[in-house]
Specification:
Blueprint (H helix, E strand, L loop, with lengths): L4 H96 L1 H10 L1 H8 L6 H25 L23
Length: 174
């Protein structure tokens, strides 16, 4: 295909112009990459200087004391449960030991022969077992509620210390 000289000149100029445009685009992209790298570096520095200390302060002032309170509450509740259930279990076992003692059985037989049969007869878990199970469930639910109250989301923890002022319309000079 043969082109006129005028058309060839126009195509050459257009090709030159396209090459210049391509070079300009490459420069713009290189500059944009440099700006993006600088922004990333600045954001990292701001994060280390501003965000990390604020998060650390929030953790130290709000979360850590709550964890300590929860640990102390769980320890206190555990000690109380241990004492209560230990006392109840010790009482039940001592009553069972007394009831199974041969001297007590002989004394009961002397008083009433039918009462001895009632003492010897075992029908399954009694009132004390159900009472102990109910107390254990009540205590466990109390502990679960206390832990839930301690770890639930609290909107007051995330309120900013300083309220932002009115936004200014002029931007500061860089």
């Amino acid at each position: 295909m043969s082109l006129s000289r005028k058309r060839q000149k126009e195509l050459k100029r257009l090709r030159s112009s396209a090459e210049d445009l391509w070079g300009d685009q490459q420069e713009v992209l290189d500059r944009a990459n440099a700006v993006a790298r600088e922004v990333s570096r600045q954001l990292s520095a701001i994060t280390h200087e501003e965000v990390v200390p604020r998060v650390r302060t929030g953790y130290e002032s709000h979360v850590r004391p709550r964890l300590g309170q929860a640990r102390e509450l769980a320890s206190t509740a555990g000690d109380g449960i241990e004492r209560t259930l230990g006392s109840a279990l010790g009482s039940v076992l001592s009553i069972g030991d007394i009831a199974n003692d041969t001297r007590v059985r002989r004394a009961v037989k002397r008083v009433s022969p039918t009462a001895a049969a009632v003492v010897a007869k075992k029908s399954g878990p009694g009132f004390g077992a159900y009472l102990a199970i109910g107390a254990g469930i009540a205590i466990a639910s109390g502990i679960a509620y206390a832990v839930w109250q301690t770890f639930r989301a609290d909107d007051e923890l995330w309120v900013a210390d300083d309220e932002p002022g009115p936004a200014s319309t002029s931007s500061p000079a860089l």
